[in-house]
Amino acid sequence: MALTIKKMLISQPQPATAKSPYFDIEKKYGIQMEFRPFIKVESMSAKEFRQQRINITDYTAVIFTARTGVDHFFHLCEELRLVVPETTKYFCISETIAVYLQKYIIYRKRKIFFATNGQLDDLGKLVMKHPKEKYIIPVSDVHKVDFMSTLKSKKIIYKMAVMYRTVSNHFGADEAFDYDMLIFFSPSGISSLLENFPKFKQNDIRIGCFGPTTQKAALNAGLRLDLEAPTPEAPSMATALDLYLKKNNG
Known about the structure:
Structural class: alpha/beta
Strand content: 15-25%
């Protein structure tokens, strides 16, 4: 029996460009797509941050593993009315994040280092080349940075500073939740679904998940997985959706 998917929720922000493949899929199959993250990121207030008793200016270098960390580090510095010294060094997980720093600093006037392969091991090696620096690492309230044990073993001075948090993006009591298919990209999205709708029954609602950790979270929550990505045939969720709808949608 063919499926009838008319309305789909994509748990990500709406694409910034009209050239997104999601819009092509929407037009191709005559379905309605709504883009709404189940989670959102909030900055810690200056008052909350002060409770950690961390003085940012005590540190000579910053480690960034995500653009989110960059945004909230400089946002918090502004709220605290702190001027980051020009001598501060920046260590980034990738060149993309290093270039993103231009949003807040004059790139050519700063000492910026980045991992060429985008891997934590490579970032760790860069840090080891500067053992005398004191590092601050902006993180979320729920975080895992795998090379911390390496820094500790090498007696590198560092401090993980919680500067932002991930929270559920709540649906209003009067909002309709009449989707035929839900698409998730993180375990946090699954958690938020159940937090918003503790009595959620999947029934005929199709669920698609991107990545093994998201898929595992869905299964652990007792949900049925109808679409999994990435696969060799579908490296992106958009491609996976296209193939799924081509095969199943009536």
